[in-house]
Design brief:
This protein is α/β, with parallel strands linked by helices. Helix content is about 40%, strand content about 25%. The chain is built from eight helices and twelve strands. Helix 1 crosses helix 5 (about 105-115), helix 2 (about 35-45) runs parallel beside helix 3 and helix 6 packs across helix 8 (about 190-200). The longest helix is centred in the C-terminal third of the chain and has 14 residues, at about 190-200. It is globular and about 55 Å long. The N and C termini lie far apart (about 40 Å). One of its GO terms (molecular function) is phosphorelay response regulator activity.
């Protein structure tokens, strides 16, 4: 049974999300503040995490940063703040999705299902291109045998580009393919993830491939394998 951590200081919201999640067959654990959420996460295994941004003790951004230091588990941020800055902030620190209040519990469950579907292994057991190796079933990335820690969304983005190397993907197409047709964000989400992905990959030297910007179109993966 898949397990979900629900962290929010609003008991009514927690009760609603817990009820809907359990009705869909998920096992749930709840936390009322950021410190409790992080403590529970460090002790138990979860398949997804729902984090409210405005929590006491530690806010959702801080909890997400701490989770990303040790895990690539899908994180969905829930907040009443819908400004672009907050959305970009959440995505920059590694959140997989960003849900703005008020929302329907059914929508949240749909977002969770979409994230978990993308966790299913696809393609080859190992994908190699020059110094780069991808392991889809483990969601692991290596450059010259050295592991590079990526979030699930970053791995999916890199994997899609590598498996379609030489093909230019528009931002809209990447958004629809990896985030879904019902995603409410805009194409800046793609640029944010590409920027973060490049920064992580650049920590290990490689000159035989790169993620290329195709001006007026989007992005592609290329190089000599």
């Amino acid at each position: 049974m898949r397990r979900i951590l629900i962290a929010d200081d609003n008991d009514a919201i927690v009760d609603i999300l817990k009820s809907f999640a359990e009705a869909e067959g998920y096992e749930t654990v709840t936390a009322g503040d950021g410190e409790e959420a992080l403590s529970v996460f460090q002790k138990e295994h979860f398949d997804a995490v729902l984090l409210d941004v405005m929590m006491p003790k530690l806010d959702g951004f801080e909890v997400c940063r701490a989770i990303r230091r040790v895990s690539n588990v899908p994180v969905l941020m829930i907040t009443a703040r819908g400004e672009d800055y907050d959305r970009i902030m959440g995505l920059d620190i590694g959140a997989d999705d960003y849900i703005v209040k008020p929302f329907s519990a059914k929508e949240v469950m749909a977002r969770i299902r979409a994230v978990l579907r993308r966790l299913q292994p696809v393609g080859e057991e190992k994908i190699t291109f020059g110094s780069l190796s991808l392991f889809p079933s483990a969601c692991r990335t290596e450059i010259n045998g050295v592991e590079v820690a990526l979030t699930k969304k970053e791995f999916d983005l890199l994997s899609l580009l590598v498996q379609n190397r030489g093909q230019a993907f528009s931002r809209d197409r990447l958004l629809e393919t990896l985030w879904g047709f019902d995603y409410e964000g805009d194409t800046r989400t793609v640029d944010t993830h590409i920027k973060r992905l490049r920064a992580k990959l650049s920590k290990e030297p490689h000159d035989d491939w790169d993620i290329r910007t195709i001006w007026g179109v989007g992005y592609s993966f290329g190089g000599e394998s």
